[in-house]
Specification:
alpha+beta; six-stranded antiparallel beta sheet; 12 strands; four-stranded antiparallel beta sheet
Length: about 300
């Protein structure tokens, strides 16, 4: 047999799906068969495609070489509404990140510039200071220096006087005694009887320079504070010299109350007098054992 001339009832020429569209009671396809006429005996059906060589079947409007052509329905994005606009410039590429070495080199360079600037400023200021000092040099051997007419406020170095209370001039009932132990004088004696109004002990001393001095007084109190009027070169000070119970002796314990205190005084060059006296308003229960000067 040849293609298109097969037997009437061979499977190759019979439509395997013909029973789906045959008219009721017959084999003909009618209008539903798509062939237009009923099948005749001995005549092969031609209502469907015959076997073709691979590559010859066409799909739609495509030819045998459709696989090598672009689909007709494809359109580039640029041709569609809202598509990409090739006329717009492409966005710039991001700047490359600096490496750590680059950042480190930059930081070192900044520090170096700052250090150089500081060094230049220091050298400049140093040069200006030298220039200024050159114009204000001190006196030379040929220059004459005018001595200052103002007295010194501090005494010049040297030995300062110190005396036991027995060397003081006593008046108004003040007297020396040794009844209370613990006095720091060389002989162990002290000035007592100071609790009588008008009693006084006067110290005459010499200094080499005028100025302020510390007047130290060694004393003993019976467990309570005392004070005396202080007169320098005949002029009584407005404030008394305070003689507190710094030893923290119990009341009445004269032997436990030995201590010392000081007050600033102004002295002249040469001989001066310092008077300790019991005046109205003073608390005079005190024994005196020593007096001395010190520098402030």
């Amino acid at each position: 047999m040849t293609a298109g001339n097969n037997g009437a009832d061979t499977p190759e020429n019979d439509d395997p799906f013909a029973h789906l569209y045959r008219s009721e009671g017959g084999e003909g396809g009618g209008a539903a068969s798509g062939a237009g006429t009923a099948r005749q005996p001995g005549v092969p059906r031609t209502s469907y495609n015959q076997v073709r060589t691979v590559g010859q079947r066409q799909y739609g409007n495509q030819g045998p070489s459709a696989y090598g052509r672009q689909n007709a329905h494809y359109a580039a994005p640029e041709t569609l509404p809202g598509g990409a606009d090739r006329s717009r410039p492409a966005p710039p590429a991001p700047a490359p990140r600096k490496s750590r070495n680059g950042l480190l080199i930059g930081a070192v360079a900044v520090v170096a510039v700052v250090c150089i600037g500081i060094g230049v400023a220091m050298l400049t200021n140093s040069g200006q200071s030298k220039d200024n000092s050159a114009g204000n040099s001190g006196p030379t051997a040929a220059d004459s220096v005018q001595p200052s007419t103002q007295p010194s406020t501090k005494p010049t170095p040297g030995a300062l006087p110190k005396d036991d209370a027995g060397a003081l001039r006593l008046e108004g009932g003040a007297t020396t005694a040794k009844d209370v132990p613990g006095a720091r004088s060389a002989s162990g004696s002290y000035v007592g009887g100071m609790n009588t109004p008008g009693a006084s002990a006067t110290w005459t001393l010499n200094v080499d320079a005028p100025g302020q001095y510390k007047l130290w007084v060694g004393y003993g109190v019976p467990g309570k504070d005392a004070n005396l009027t202080l007169t320098i070169n005949g002029q009584a000070l407005t404030r008394p010299i305070s003689l507190h119970n710094f030893a923290h002796a119990p009341e009445g314990a004269w032997d436990k109350g030995w201590t010392r205190s000081w007050s600033l005084i102004q002295l002249n060059k040469g001989t001066n007098t310092v008077k300790l006296s019991c005046e109205n308003g003073n608390q005079c229960e005190v024994n005196l054992d020593q007096v001395w000067l010190d520098r402030p």
